[in-house]
Design a protein that fits this description.
Number of strands: 2
Number of helices: 6
Helix content: 55-70%
Structural class: mainly alpha
Radius of gyration: 23 Å
Low-confidence stretches: none
Shape: elongated
Order of helices and strands: HHEEHHHH
């Protein structure tokens, strides 16, 4: 297949900023593209597909290393899907832990807000709670 897209066109097609595309190339998530005589990058539809895959995986929170693994699984279609499921289950468990942590943080901040009665900063319960105990 001939490569016919510039980085700007790839950026628009995959809804990914050009600097991100260059970064993904640098770290090996995307193959280095062919170049024109004036050194412009040229891409094809397979690059749009791969970049869209990476973007969607990143949007749902997979790390760069996890995306690299998912790409490897995707590239070898005859492999066992159990490893993909296991990775996704682990990621889900991490997301659920983050939600629990954020809920605890929300409760803590809510308690801090209740401790503030307004008035002078010297009497502020939030500042008092954040200050070192003497």
């Amino acid at each position: 297949m001939s490569r016919t897209l510039t980085i700007g066109q790839l950026s628009a097609a995959a809804q990914t900023p050009a600097p991100t595309i260059r970064y993904y190339e640098k770290i090996g998530l995307l193959d280095s593209p062919s170049r024109t005589g004036s050194n412009y990058r040229l891409y094809g539809s397979e690059d749009v597909d791969r970049l869209s895959f990476v973007r969607r995986a990143r949007e749902i929170g997979f790390t760069i290393d996890q995306v690299r693994s998912l790409l490897a699984f995707s590239d070898s279609r005859d492999g066992d899907c159990c490893a993909v499921s296991a990775m996704t289950e682990q990621h889900l468990a991490e997301v659920e832990q983050k939600i629990r942590d954020l809920n605890l943080l929300k409760e803590h901040l809510s308690r801090l807000l209740v401790s503030c009665q307004g008035g002078r900063v010297s009497d502020c319960g939030i500042i008092g709670a954040l200050s070192p105990q003497q």
